[in-house]
Amino acid sequence: MSDIKKIKDEYLNKLKNDLKIENLNQIKTELFGKNGQISNLFKKIGTLSQDERKKFASALNIVKEELQEKINFKIKEIEDKEINSKLESEKVDVTLPEREISQGKIHPVSQVIDEISSIFSEIGFSVEEGPDVENEHYNFTALNTPDNHPARDMHDTFYLDQNKKLLLRTHTSPVQVRTMLKGKPPFKIIAPGRTYRSDSDQTHSPMFHQVEGLHIDKDINMGHLKGCLNFFIKSFFEIDKIKMRFRPSHFPFTEPSAEVDIGYEIKNGKIVIGEGNKWLEILGCGMVHPNVLKNVNVNPNKYQGYAFGIGIDRLGMLKYGINDLRAFFETDYRWLNHFGFDPLDVPSNYRGLSR
Ligand code: PHE
């Protein structure tokens, strides 16, 4: 019994002091923790005689409740104090002006990539991706471009190592190779992405964007290529008629190869696509060379098809009246505010995100 009283007096005394939450928690453990003084006294109950047991237990319970109550009261007191002092010091000034809300814009290049992807997805193309850092094999050799082929110089390649094995891809065509190596024909894909060449002026940037197209099946011919590009250009520029011409060209990975121009004219200082007698080159294409198919284990006697590579930035410049390619990549916030797109502002030819 004297133990109970001793503990009670000692702790009531302690609780008179100016205590912090940590001190109060400490006291709680000292009394009611696993080895706490009160907890230990409860363990003693079993050793007492029947008579003593009743008295001891009820006395112990009373002290336990008294101390607990006191401690909880003190904790509440401290918490109230804290809240009150916060309310005192943190006044809300309802007269302050609101903070400006700034909403980001979608970059024209991202917008154009989305538009292109959704147009091609309508006619059955799916979207593939490849890495910007490419190896020499996928970028050139597998695409039928041997070591000393002049096309390698044409590309002004950024090499990443002394042995010229790693490079920044000069076109999206290596995605053709990657796609065909990992699957089985037929293939019908587009592959938009960044490409790199050591070149810089008003219409060339060292980093630019292309979208690759590849359609391989048993009887795909140049007519299909023409139809597909015709559909794409009309949809992209939202016009019913276009003037388009195939100019014979050369790429090591296609045979025959062509470059495609679209007709345009300048009316009242604005470029009008699909009319007039000026020509603008927008893409390279052709029938995939049998050697390329062999390199990716596709039998050229069974399968054939076309590929194309379109300059994305140039299409964006034409459609949205942007006259310096470099502006795309200068990350000038004012420029982006003007030419960028609102995420919720759906353009008239928007067909839903395809990625
Ligand atoms: N890769 C070529 C280029 O970048 C374009 C192209 C792609 C041509 C596919 C033919 C077929 O110039």
Q: Explain this structure to me?
A:
The chain has helices at about 1-15, 20-30, 35-45, 50-90, 110-120, 135-140, 150-155, 175-180, 220-235, 290-295, 310-320, 335-340; strands at about 125, 135, 165-170, 185-195, 205-215, 245-250, 255-265, 270-275, 280-290, 305-310. It is an alpha+beta fold and about 350 residues long. The protein has two domains: about 1-90; about 110-340, Bira Bifunctional Protein, Domain 2 (BirA Bifunctional Protein, domain 2, 2-Layer Sandwich). Strands 1, 4, 5, 6, 7, 8, 9 and 10 form an eight-stranded mixed β-sheet that branches. Strand 7 (about 255-265) and strand 8 (about 270-275) form a beta hairpin. Phenylalanine binds next to strand 9 and strand 10.
Percent helix, as a range, is 40-55%
The tally of helices reads: 12
- Name the structural class: alpha+beta
In total, how many beta strands?
10
Beta content = 15-25%
CATH superfamily of the largest domain: Bira Bifunctional Protein, Domain 2
CATH architectural name of the largest domain: 2-Layer Sandwich
Ligands, deduplicated:
phenylalanine
CATH topology category name of the largest domain: BirA Bifunctional Protein, domain 2
N-to-C SSE string, H for helix and E for strand: HHHHHEEHHEHEEHEEEEHEHH
Number of domains: 2
Q: Describe the biggest sheet?
A: 8 strands, mixed
The geometry reads as elongated
Distance between the amino and carboxyl termini: 78 Å
**Could you name the ranges where pLDDT drops below 50 across 5 or more consecutive residues?**
none
By CATH reckoning, the class of the largest domain would read Alpha Beta
Overall mean pLDDT? 90
Q: Taking Cα atoms only, what radius of gyration do you get, to the nearest Å?
A: 38 Å
